[in-house]
Design goal:
The chain has 565 residues and is α+β, with helices and mostly antiparallel strands. It has 15 helices and 22 strands. The strands form five sheets. Strands 5-4-3-6-8-7 form a six-stranded antiparallel beta sheet, with helices on both faces. Strands 12, 13, 14, 15, 21 and 22 form a six-stranded antiparallel beta sheet that branches. Strand 1 and strand 2 form a beta hairpin. Helix 1 runs antiparallel to helix 4 and helix 3 packs across helix 4. The protein is elongated. The relative contact order is 0.10. About 2% of the residues have low confidence.
């Protein structure tokens, strides 16, 4: 089936046929009691009905709007996001007490028989209209009952997925390919190194599956890769993809050794785009870059022009060989994988833009605006309500600069951890908000399920996690004034259709796929973007980004560390 709208007339005909047409019942019911009712969720606007959840009133043939089901909770209730490849879902609901009152134990049997007749009518109607239909059994009736706000003694006894018939085998290939890719990328991973779980917070389901995988890469270094999704399978694939990305990030190939002045063609100058204070370089054992410094170089290219450019491996690979003294400590920022090269490049550039926006706002201490609840969709509002019940606030902030929307999601409260953030960039601000929401929730989940850490001083910030640790406690909350004093806005960030207009990225292919199950991995760079830094005194002071935006660097060196982990 395809994810596409179903014509209203087709939907109406299905509902008619399942219950009654022109006052005549289309199925029998023991004792003429008719204990069934129909609810449905349409994923798209029709000519008459906007997308949402409805209860069908068979006698008047009216659709009565209900509280809209949230797609992420639907996935949680139905095991897998690929089970929602359809235009509508119909829920057959039974009042289990009606037949039982008259027929006692046999009443349940009669109710199920009636549900079967209703399903058969739906199949016949879909066949007549050339629609695809599938009765779905792997759902959690308790979750669905809560979502539909059914009274006691009412239960979902049938679920039907209905959609236009797919004209190609694309959907089947994608669904089948997921498990094949998990197996392919997982390689020799043992079950003991793999953890998969549904995420909860204080006993409440969060709507996510989480996968963690332990693996070893170069020099027998151990590491963990993680994946989170609304479905179990996609969370596994994301974890395997992250592991694949990490391994490829350390596989150094196709390099030359030369001094910058000896290179033919353009080359990337790390002292301009990753400027670091000499005292910091000396403290961590790095070497200062110069045109006479011998480096290993790898070739990259511009996306829009395809012009080649040499990049020092210091700015590309991690970890670097132990016998190589770097001039810069690179991180995973700007490395991404995807089903296609285009997907990978897009994801990497979005990460760079997101981190750049937060770095600029931090080092300039410029004001940001909090998004009004009017700008949030029902899913985000429900998430805010979820955290409010747990004594915390979930809020969204606009950090957009000069390209695509950047949204920062923050969960804060009076208890440990007091401040946690997630962030994302995307041409569509709501997509960015959804990803930022997922990130901040996962971080909060991890902290609430770990042993509490202790406050640290800014000069003790070394690792990535230390940056967040500075703000989990009361001591540094006043430094987060950008959030707590933010003005509320009803103006939505402008949607940018082409993110490559402003930034023509440099691409380095870290891994080219060997087959259709393999995934490309890229490193993306851009000179105008201020890269994230980790550690005390590791900021890129002197970068031209703030000047070009008309902003000032307000911190004296070394700056107070930022809050991103």
């Amino acid at each position: 089936m395809e994810k596409s709208p179903i014509a209203f007339k087709k939907l109406a005909k299905i509902l008619y046929s399942m219950t009654e047409v022109e006052g005549i019942k289309t199925h029998a019911s023991a004792g003429g009691l008719y204990p069934l009712s129909l609810y449905f969720h349409t994923f798209y606007d029709t000519e008459i009905l906007p997308k949402g959840t409805y209860k069908y009133h068979n006698q008047s043939h009216k659709a009565i709007p209900q509280k809209t089901l949230l797609i992420e909770y639907l996935i949680n209730a139905m095991s897998n996001e690929t089970d929602l490849d359809s235009g509508i879902i119909i829920f057959i609901v039974a009042n289990l007490g009606i037949h039982s009152q008259k027929y006692f134990n046999r009443g349940y049997r009669f109710t199920m028989q009636e549900a079967g007749m209703v399903v058969q009518n739906a199949y016949l109607s879909c066949s007549e209209q050339n629609l695809g239909i599938c009765q779905y059994g792997a759902y959690d009736e308790n979750i669905l009952s809560q979502m539909l706000e059914l009274p006691s003694n009412y239960e979902v006894v049938g679920v039907l997925r209905i959609g236009e018939i797919c004209t190609s085998d694309e959907t089947e290939v994608v669904n089948t390919k997921t498990q094949h890719q998990i197996d392919y990328l997982g390689g020799e991973i043992q079950n003991s190194d793999l953890q998969i779980r549904q995420l909860t917070c204080e006993g409440n389901r969060m709507g996510y599956w989480g996968t963690s995988v332990k693996f070893c890469y170069r020099d027998n270094l151990s590491a963990y890769a993680n994946g989170v999704s609304y479905s179990r399978e996609i969370s596994q694939l994301k974890a395997m993809a992250e592991m694949h990305e990490r391994i490829c990030s350390g596989n150094i190939t196709n390099t030359i050794t030369a001094k910058a002045r000896e290179l033919s063609g353009k080359w990337y100058n790390p002292s301009l785009y990753f400027p670091l204070k000499k005292e910091y370089l000396d403290s961590v054992g790095f070497v200062e870059f110069s045109v006479n410094l011998e480096r290993r170089w790898v070739k990259g290219y511009r996306l829009n022009t395809n012009d080649s450019i040499w990049i020092p491996i210091d700015c590309v690979y991690y970890p670097l060989p132990k016998d190589y003294t770097p001039c810069f400590g690179v991180s995973s920022n700007g490395v991404a994988t995807g089903q296609t090269l285009e997907n990978a490049v897009f994801a990497a550039l979005m990460e760079l833009i997101e981190r750049d926006a937060i770095m600029v706002s931090w080092y300039s201490q410029c004001k940001v605006k909090r998004l009004s609840t009017n700008l949030l969709d029902p899913y985000l509002l429900s998430k805010a309500e979820f955290w409010e019940k747990l004594g915390r606030k979930l809020e969204f902030y606009n950090f957009t600069l000069d390209s695509v929307p950047v949204i920062v999601a923050v969960i804060h409260g009076e208890h440990y951890p007091m401040f946690v953030r997630g962030s994302s960039a995307n041409p569509d601000y709501l997509k960015a908000a959804h990803k930022a929401c997922q990130e901040v929730e996962i971080t909060m989940h991890s902290l609430l399920h770990s042993e509490n850490c202790h406050p640290i001083l800014p000069e003790d910030v070394v690792e990535v996690e230390d940056h967040g640790r500075l703000y989990y406690f009361t001591e540094n909350q006043e430094r987060l004034w950008q959030f707590y004093d933010a003005e509320v806005t009803d103006v939505a960030p402008v949607v940018i259709n082409d993110p490559y207009q402003r930034f023509d990225p440099i691409i380095i292919n870290l891994h080219k796929p060997k087959n259709n199950l393999d995934l490309p991995v890229v490193r993306v760079l851009h000179e105008d973007l201020l890269h994230i830094n980790f550690g005390f005194g590791n900021e890129h002071i002197g970068h031209s980004r703030l000047d070009k935006l008309g902003l000032k660097w307000v911190f004296k060196y070394p700056a107070f560390p930022h809050y991103i982990i």
